[in-house]
Amino acid sequence: MDYSVISERISLKVSAKGHQADRTKIEGKLRRLIEEFGVPPQEAERTVLNELARDLSIPDLVPGTGAAAGEERQLRQLSSGDWATIEAKVVSLSSSPSAAISQTGILADPTGAMRFVVWAKANAPRLSVGSWYRFESVVVDEYRGSPNLKIHSGTTIKEISRETPLIPEILAIGDLTPGIGSVKGKFIQEWDVSHDRMLQAGLLGDESGTVKFVIWKEEGKERLNPGTVYSVYYALVDEYQGRMSLNLTTATVVPEEGDIPVSGGERVFTGALVHIAPGSGLIKRCPVEGCNRVLSRQNYCPVHEIQPGFLYDLRIKGWLDNGEETREILVQREVTEKLTGISIQEAKDLAENNPLGMDEVFLRMRERILGRFFTCRGREIDQRILVSECGFHHFDPGEIPALLNRAGGAP
Question: Is 63 part of any domain?
């Protein structure tokens, strides 16, 4: 980009008002705004003009601009590309993902909440959770589809005394959108973690639907208890392939008494079991209270390390295919025993007395059910059915000629 063209245009506007401006400094400010903070060139030019207008006392340098960088706004009024002054409370801080970032977390005011980033180059004072601040000249961009507030070297920060109560708006899970959200939901399903840094993953639900959540390992973070109702304040809401997910690492999570109804979200699916995935059959789980993670073959838990006192469990992970679409299924012990005819005790005996060990259980289960047709019922999310009921599907004899015609391509 040719910064000299923009800096010359700015310099000429200043000169026309009877003042002088250093073109080298102007070009440096433009380069920093555009390259370091990702500000669009037009917005960067307007920002530099606004700063010069303020510093040189030229009120009409930027005609028709009603939203200068110092205009005071509330969080709900901000959108990508805005420059403003805000007063907000730091409601959470999280670990910095990069050395270029000094602090990151969530700011809130009576109108809403927003993620924020303090750049290391800003040399800004350290912010504290629970304190109110006045931020003059902050910039808003977009991160993962939602507004994100950036504190840069041109931002002035001042701690203020304010007693304004913040009452987060509780949303129905089905109404969540990317950004920051607060919900009340029941922990209905725990999932195996997929990363060593992940503390817990699972599903929260209410009357409007379900949403996946994740908690990353950070100091002071605790696991949630399945079956418990929680009020979650200021969680990060992200979108992936049209589905929302909650990051509870920065959220305030409060257990509640009682129960709430959860939307069924149930799906009935019939198809052939075309694949049984690794991790099916007899598995070992971590015995530490509240963990229940699947162990490796060496009895290793990613959180609690070697666990010689493991617990056995049975499950099926596989795919059903009806010829038009497929669904991943996850079948827990009771239903797995019913479908395979192998009890948990029989599976343990096989594993402990057969040369193939746990692989023998997997092979026998596969022989009995792979390729068979099933009708499964359960809660569905991201095309995975968490099976609560499942049985063999037997075709009506009257349907067989039609099926044969379809297989042979007959009209």
Answer: no
Q: Which residues contact 47 (CB under 8 A, 6 or more apart)?
A: 33, 39, 69, 83
Q: Is residue 410 part of a domain?
A: no
Q: Is the pLDDT of residue 66 over 50?
A: no
Predicted local confidence at residue 214, as pLDDT: 94
Residue recorded with tokens 């401006």:
21
180 and 136 together in one domain: no
The residue from 112, 140, 160 where one domain ends is 160
Gyration radius of the chain over CA positions? 29
**Which residue, 10, 145, 131, 147, is CA-closest to 83?**
147
How many C-beta atoms surround the C-beta of residue 384 within 10 A? Answer: 15
Euclidean distance between CA atoms 168 and 107, whole angstroms = 12
Q: How many domains does the chain have?
A: 4
Q: How far is CA 213 from CA 39, 155, 202, 237, 247, in A?
A: 32, 34, 6, 9, 6
> For the packed helices 23-31 and 41-55, what is the interaxial angle rounded to 10 degrees?
140
In this prediction, residue 87 has a pLDDT band, given cuts at 50, 70 and 90, of very high
pLDDT of residue 45: 84
Which residue type does 7 have? S
Instruction: In whole angstroms, give the CA distance from residue 96 to residue 56.
Output: 37
What is the predicted pLDDT for the residue at 265?
67
Q: Are residues 247 and 209 in the same domain?
A: yes
With the C-alpha atoms ordered 60, 66, 70, 72, is the resulting torsion angle positive or negative?
positive
pTM of the model: 0.61
Question: Which residue range is the domain that position 212 belongs to?
Answer: 170-256
Answer whether 204's CB lies under 8 Å from 185's CB: yes
206 and 106 belong to one structural domain: no
The answer on 276 and 389 residing in a single domain is yes
**Residue 113 contacts residue 80 (beta carbons within 8 Å):** no
**At 114, which CATH number?**
2.40.50.140
Q: Does residue 65 register a pLDDT over 50?
A: no
> Does residue 404 fall inside a structural domain?
no
- Please name the residue ranges forming H helices in 314-383: 333-340, 344-353, 358-369
Pairwise CA distance, residues 244 & 237, whole Å: 7
Out of 256, 274, 290, pick the residue that ends a domain.
Answer: 256
**Residue 238 belongs to a domain:** yes
